[in-house]
Amino acid sequence: MQIFFILGIPLLLGIAAILVKKERAFGIINAIGHLAVLSLSVVLFKDLILSGRTYSYFGFIYLDALGAFFIFVISVVSFAAALYSIGYIRDEVGEALISEKKAGLYYALFNLFCFSMFFVPAVNNLGMLWVAIEMTTLISAFLVGFHNTKDSVEAAWKYIIICSVGIIFALLGTILFSYAFSLSSGGMKSLNWSDMAASASGMDKNIMKTAFIFILVGYGTKAGLAPMHTWLPDAHSQAVAPISALLSGVLLKTAIYAILRFGIIVIKGAGFQYFGNLMILLGLVSLIISSGFVLVQKDLKRLLAYSSIEHVGIIAIGFGLGTPLAFAGALLHIFNHAVTKSMMFFGGGQIVSAYKTHNMNDIRGVIKSMPFVGIMTLLGVFALTGLPPFSIFISEIMIIIAAFVKGSYLVAALLLLLLAVIFGAFIYHFGNMFFGKLPKDMTVRTERLSGKLAFLFLFFQICAVGLLLPFIKKDLLWITQRLFHI
After folding, report:
1. For 351-361, what is each residue's pLDDT tens digit?
2. Residue 278 within a domain
3. How far apart are alpha carbons 2 and 19 in whole angstroms?
4. Is 118 found in the same domain as 236?
């Protein structure tokens, strides 16, 4: 029953945001509400992992360990974003960038956005999955264009158009999967994932393979897989910082979840090789394209956006390799990237707000002007680029080892090379920003308590996973087996 509270709390908060006039008071209420959602998601995930059961309600809601995992990841980032929003929106109101009324609209859209993301892993019907993912696009588009500037509105329209075109391909893929299922079931029609997965071995392999290409193009557009990624740098760079964290940290993962759901059907019906080869191909293309743009990037938030494309590529490669170790690394990378990139967007948002520019060439002396934010963001850079002992190092090394063990030496070599290139680019860009000469008109800024708590909440998890995981690797592999039955 936890799922109904997980879905219901954001809906109630969204309604309350319009009614509560004081944005600061509601910001605290909002954070408490999302803390409750996080607690419920932990209980749900633990229950489904330990029991191995699945829950189905009204033939509509369907939950297994895989869905519960994604709900947990979304809840972690949504709570951090809710906590960070308290001070961020207070500053926006204080600087007259938005009114109290518009702050209420922000919180209403924030919670509707979170509801739509929680809804994605909770539905059984693949048609409703498509609706839920399209709903995340439509709601978050208002948050991308929240400030109504020329650049933000342009980014919002680009986001809607490209993702909506992509999602049409996903709809065609869903229809083809349904058709393949009806042929194998004597004319019985169903869009329920549980029905298709159970009958996958009898479905037409050629139709299924064609359908999965449509799914990869459609949901891959939303996930930020190259070359369908073109909306992502604009949208992530123009959204307000807490929403950028949600977009990069967990919105992309809802599309990966959809690809995995269809991928499981393909694996059962047509074998793993077809699924794996396509995932590795798109993963490598994403890494190659993102590394080039990271090298020449001058916009801070666009740099972080291209880094998201890189990490989505790493996740795709992990799932494409297909061994238990690679699957475990990919799942762990979903969580690690979610918390690390969210912290980076918090820091990037504060830096852009303080310096009034996105151009990294004009940002210098961050450590001196913003000591707390600067130090946390610098640590985030090390974590994001895969340095030990932080969590992303663990998941990346698991995927690289899996590639070597499987004999995919070219994949492993390309991964190492491209990760080294991106590491060098990040150190160069952020080194100049953090340690350059402080502009004369800059004064020392302090972070609000809510912002500090959001940073520390995420950083604790980055460190905890990085330090503890080597000792619980067997437990992670066991969890992976529960999630994918491999």
Report:
1. 888 888 888 88
2. no
3. 26
4. no
